[in-house]
Design brief:
Distance between the termini: 68 Å
Bound molecules: adenosine monophosphate, zinc ion
Number of helices: 25
Shape: globular
Strand order of the largest sheet: 2-11-10-3-9
Largest sheet: 5 strands, mixed
Helix content: 25-40%
Length: about 675
Amino acid sequence: MKIQQQIEALRNELREHNYNYYVLDRPKISDYDFDLKLKELQKLENQYPEFYDETSPTLRVGGTVTKNFNTVVHDYRMYSLANSYSKEDIEDWEKRIQKGLGDVDVAYVCELKYDGASISLSYEEGQLIKAVTRGDGFQGDDVTTNIKTIKSVPLKLKGDYPSKFDIRGEVVLPFKGFAKMNADRVKKGEEPYMNPRNTASGSLKLQDSAAVAQRPLDCLLYGIVGRNLGITSQWQMLEKAREWGFKVPRVAKLCKTTDDVMAFVEEWDKRRHDLPYETDGVVIKVNSLQQQDELGHTSKSPRWAMAFKFKAEQVSTLLNKITYQVGRTGAITPVANLEPVLLAGTTVKRASLHNADQIAKFDIRVGDTVFVEKGGEIIPKIVGVDFSKRPQNSQETKYIDHCPECGTKLERTEGDAKHYCNNYYGCPVQITGRIQHYISRKAMDIEGMGSETVTLLFQEGLITNYADLYTLTKAQLLPLERMAEKSAENLIKGVSESIKIPFDRVLFALGIRFVGETVAKKLAKAYKNIDALMAATEEELTAVDEIGERIAKSVTEFFANESNIEIIKRLKNYGVQFQLSAEKLKNQTEKLKGKVFVISGVFENMNRTELKKLIEDNGGKVSSSISSKTTYLVAGDKMGPSKRTKAETLQVPIITENDFLTLLKQG
Ligand code: AMP
Ligand code: ZN
């Protein structure tokens, strides 16, 4: 046999064994024999490097070291899921679906909600080419070299796969492997890891892929996105993914009614402890992809999917002390300091008490035995008091009235649950908090700088606001503790590179109260540059889609402040982006201003997301249901019949895709 064929044959054989072992859990040869074959292949590959193949099973052992993980924009956004906790929630959701689709039959697929780290794998011509973490949903980190070491992730597919697609899943660390890892660590005198989920997501960002290869990670897949996939339902998607070689858990059910859905939820709420990996609920999805498309997304999550969260685990423990934290916007959060207690695999020492009302509602007092619960959130919460254990001399909790950081009298406005320290310029934690927010990943993403560095720089008097970051010099940094030449250079480089960050993120980075990522995007889109935004009145702002009075007021207040204006002026001089890029502006017009569209059906020249973007880029609004405010219903093939009836009743003009394009051309 020719050498090349011999190498290929070995690779194929090892791929099949990997598949049997890691995906199907049904090994056909012993580990020993597998290792022998792998070594044989490795030897041949070393001898004949000209036959290199990036999908070779030998690459599973890792070895590449990644210093910085590149940021990659997802071709298709990775959304969150809406949560539900009861049968009523599910029934309400079903009603919304029926309303959105009209009275049609809807089938649902129930899957388990795997609790690990989300991942998106890109395949082209059957080869894994990229693996990216979820990140903020729009962009994540390229962790391809690490993912390649996970044996259940196919590097090469089988069957009739489409030429290009992304598949989404969750990297998990099964309980057994996790326990073994911890036992090994303890043996070596190292601290055991807290829980499988955090360890799994931490593993993806290890610099040495050989270390990742040592970890018994697994990758469970659940969703495919792409064009011309030839798939029409979620159920078929799961089946196809299995055929192509992916690990798709068999625990899933196709349901006709919400009763069937609830039966699945109840069954797995009980049986989940028998599963080899951690789950935190069930994900319910509308089966038909056409119906999914028709339902679309909110700004955060698909309307066609719903997570049902299993009931959180609960324990009781002693409340030792209440402390108060001041956030970057001055909001005060009371924190319960607890007698450490084990909960859902982690030791809990602190829990959020949210606000004064929350404490009053449960009448929570120091010395009480409290019930602590951990849901999907990272921070556990207190859900009640065991009054039978309340000590005799216990005192009602008196909420603080002055800022624990700067002594300023706290204020609380009508309708706001939180108390605020309004010492915007003098409260040290707010000053550093704002700068920490500015440099954070979702904001200016300044590399080479962390929260502690900000505190240090502030304490040393080197910075008092985020504009000061741009004036830092190496001479100033070097005398600081733990600041080597290299780290000082990295910090300065990170700061100077932040001027490339687009306007919407800059707007978010400014840290205006109530202006989160989504609002920042909306404002950037509506005003296009900071000057226009600064000139906007409260009234004009509320006219922008989804901007309410509370946000509008906060924005105008922010820009009415002299020092904020001064800081923005400085940032502008340093080159920070204060307008949408030419590229973003290029295709944007106001042609459809004031017009509200509803989209329904399947289109020929573009998909629904593209159509929606086209409408929004041209100043129009897309709404999910038809009302008297709807200007046009853009109807594609297979439009829901109820939408048509409703449009006709309300006399909303129904237009085709081509009519729409003509309308756009004419402006
Ligand atoms: P959340 O982060 O709570 O909004 O939930 C969304 C995350 O659930 C996604 O990023 C997925 O990675 C994860 N997930 C786990 N299992 C599934 C599943 N079967 N279907 C969809 N998403 C899932
Ligand atoms: Zn303060």
